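Team,

Forwarding the record for the chain on the shared tracking sheet. I've put the sequence and predicted structure together so nobody has to dig through attachments.
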Amino acid sequence: MPITEFLSRNAAHYGDEIALVEVNPALREETSTQTDWRELTLAEHDFHSGYRKTITWHTFDEQANQCAHLLLRQGVRRGEKVAILLMNCIEWLPIYFGILKAGAIVVPMNFRYSSDEIAYCLNLADVTTLIFGPEFVDRMAAIQDKTDGITQYFLGEQWERPAFASSFQTQAAKVSKKPPIIPLYDEDDAAIYFSSGTTGFPKAILHSHKALVFACEVEQAHHKQTHSDVFLCIPPLYHTGAKMHWFGSLMVGGRGILLRGTQSRWILETAAWEGATVVWLLVPWAQDILDALEAGELRLADYELDNWRLMHIGAQPVPPSLIKRWKAVFPNHAYDTNYGLSESIGPGCVHLGMENIRKVGAIGTAGFGWRTKIVNENGETLPCGEVGELAVKGRGVMKEYYKDEAASRAALHDGWLHTGDMAREDEDGFIYLVDRKKDVIITGGENLYPVQIEDFLRAHPKIKDVAVIGLAEYRLGEIAAAIIEIKPGLTCTEEEINAFCLDLPRYKRPRKIIFAPVLRNATGKIEKPKLRAQFAGGSIVETQTKN
């Protein structure tokens, strides 16, 4: 069945219940400094400043239908590509499902893209229609000469609308709220997602309706969502990680909360006010919450968090030291981590499992409906303990890299997706992520896996974040350089870091220490290409033997 059936079913069964809530704490704080927000009811929150918006399942479905009819009236045909370029907002998901209901292929766009990146991705995906928000007017204006033939709709206030775009709200209000009569099938193309670009320019990843439905099944099987669960969604909806986790709530008609902002106080406040039961965090946000609590900037006693049953993390390797700290502060939380890629319909192809807290540090075993293996350069399965490339197989594997046959052939082999991640499997079948294949550092003939060094350094009490990259070096070929971000209010020296690293094997110790911010993208992944470009400077460095 197509994934749109879940929305239609929820509208029929739970029509008057709240489906989505958008919370914008920054708007609230801009408009009032006189109110103690913890003392207000949810209805009063809705009234004050419009910072909290809600829609029911019935309204969600109707808005999706209107979006579909608008596209069909415009002449959008089955299989055409329609892009979304919006910040997280309550309109995002109805538009997403409306595009699908029209029989079109939805193309979510990264809201951090520059004008040139937007133009590149629109062209790569053969987009014929774009729906964008006010944050992108200037970026779109800069590329109007590159968007000929693309119909553009603006979602926002009329006074902000640029002349080159029609008003989405005005046009959608003129069409029917009834379901469009467009037959959809499991094998129909449904969505194009773009790779994160941490290893190069984004690739366009094509998925079917069957894969999207499978993502719903995987998420619900892993985290046991019920209709009464409340899912707090913070990451950007354009990314598979956020949306595919919410898909578990879609499957059971559970409420979703879209929080616009990542401040620690906002996360705890929203979790408390909305009665969140499931919260997905990225590593930096979890670290920030713990740091704020330990520094006394926040007090747990100020928040009613008894409903919160599960904290889970994905999108990047998770330091075991972080989870140890989290469980010390939140002992009643179940914990889980999920590994995945946009090529495997987001998180879940490897899954730790809430019952396997003893294996923190591993990314888990094959997820629900998935198979995994560790292979060498020839595609041969490696024995337990050996490091190789992780490959996965299941209904969520992409159909192809759109318009890139060479990349598709390199990644797909007999239904197996070769992930580009280096991993090993222990005697119990649990998989440990070692590093990205392209991030492995070869120094003096030895392979260094940056994630292992990063995990070690994160245990230092002064370190907030760290990234280890390879820099070209005259004698050794490459050396490991540690970019270290220190916790606010603290100071640290290179000598302190070198002394701490004495517990590492000599060849694993960083040869260069750089104190600087660690760049991460919107999904929390370290942007190592940017860090290498920033600190390599295109030159070969010379080092003295030390440590």
